UniProtKB/TrEMBL annotation:
Keywords: Isomerase. SUPFAM superfamilies: Galactose mutarotase-like. InterPro entries: Aldose_1/G6P_1-epimerase, G6P_1-epimerase, Gal_mutarotase_sf_dom, GH-type_carb-bd. It catalyses: alpha-D-glucose 6-phosphate = beta-D-glucose 6-phosphate. Pfam families: Aldose_epim (PF01263). Belongs to the glucose-6-phosphate 1-epimerase family. Its EC number is 5.1.3.15. The keyword Transcription does not apply. This is Putative glucose-6-phosphate 1-epimerase. It comes from Nitrosospira multiformis. Coiled coil: none annotated.
């Protein structure tokens, strides 16, 4: 991809420009009155989002991340599609699908009447993708950079037969310290504990992190909140089109084993993922579409976040 041509076609003066990023990947840098952000055209992945009123980035991005074709970038918002987790058919295909490790197309850029920047990236089927997943599709990701970060992933079935997908925004949030984090909004939900032999459990109180956590929460809808006490903020997550939430932290052993994480990175990251996974499988008919939406907003006035909810430090 030619950076000069991308800027000529899609750049926006004083707000949005294309630059050569790590690994030579085209990055989109956005800086407006409300926030700054970095988006990688490779993987269609938001790598950074920092509101103008917050001294800390919303996103965790590993300093040891890979920037190589065929590799996933560790951090930001990787897109898992058309399946979440291991290959559902056991054919040895990559975990979390094939769109987080290839270049996307820039479809359009723009600015709203409110001054938010909008970037739309897309993918369509090719002979290469059909060799991996034998369906025709049109996938688009609309990213809105304003006071909040808004993501809309739209899957359109351009095939002659229905197909089924699972998917996720595999979002890595940057937290002050994992020992001072709680996730609110999951109390009373059933979950699959993948760190405990996929045992079925019931969440009681808020979620705190004191060991490896890898959980798939069923019937998770509406608003979730990450109480990031060390940074004196809460991260509000609202979603549409999702009945599943995934909470993941690798903890010390796995963090040390991952070449694209530093040994102590687990202390600074928490994934809370908006997903269709587990039993939440989406069927899309021919000439139909499905929309997965997530909005991330940092709140400093804590009295307005899940009013009346008090953190309970339970597992």
């Amino acid at each position: 991809m030619n950076i000069e041509q991308l800027n000529a076609d899609y750049g926006i003066d004083d707000q949005l420009k294309f630059v050569e990023g790590a690994g030579g990947f085209p990055f989109i840098k956005i800086d407006n009155d409300k926030a700054s952000a970095v988006i990688s055209v490779y993987a269609g992945q938001v790598l950074s989002f920092q509101p103008a009123n917050d001294p800390n980035n919303l996103m965790f991005l590993s300093e040891a991340a890979y920037y190589q074709p065929g590799k996933a970038i560790k951090g930001g918002v990787p897109i898992c599609w058309p399946w979440f987790g291991l290959d559902p058919d056991g054919l040895g295909r990559p975990a979390h699908g094939f769109v987080r490790n290839r270049f996307w197309n820039v479809v359009r850029t723009g600015v709203t009447a409110d001054g938010d920047a909008i970037v739309t990236l897309g993918l369509i089927d090719t002979p290469e993708t059909k060799a991996i997943w034998p369906h025709s599709f049109n996938l688009s990701l609309e990213i809105t950079i304003g006071e909040s970060l808004n993501l809309e992933l739209v899957t359109r079935n351009t095939d002659t037969r229905p197909f089924f997908i699972t998917q996720a925004f595999h979002t890595y949030f940057k937290v002050g310290h994992i020992n001072q984090v709680a996730v609110l909004g999951l109390d009373g939900l059933d979950y699959i504990d993948k760190a405990d032999n996929a045992a079925h459990k019931l969440q009681t109180g808020t979620v705190s992190i004191g060991a490896e956590v890898d959980r798939i929460y069923r019937k998770a809808q509406g608003k979730l909140v990450i109480d990031d006490a060390a940074q004196c903020r809460r991260i509000c997550i609202t979603s549409q089109g999702s009945n599943t939430a995934v909470v993941w932290n690798p903890w010390a052993k796995i963090s040390a084993e991952m070449a694209d994480l530093k040994d102590d990175d687990y202390q600074r990251l928490l994934c809370v993922e908006t997903a269709n996974a587990d039993l939440d499988v989406v069927e899309i008919a021919p000439d139909s579409e499905f929309r997965l939406v997530a909005n991330y907003r940092i709140e400093h006035d804590l009295s307005h976040v899940l009013k009346g909810t008090q953190p309970v430090t339970t597992g």
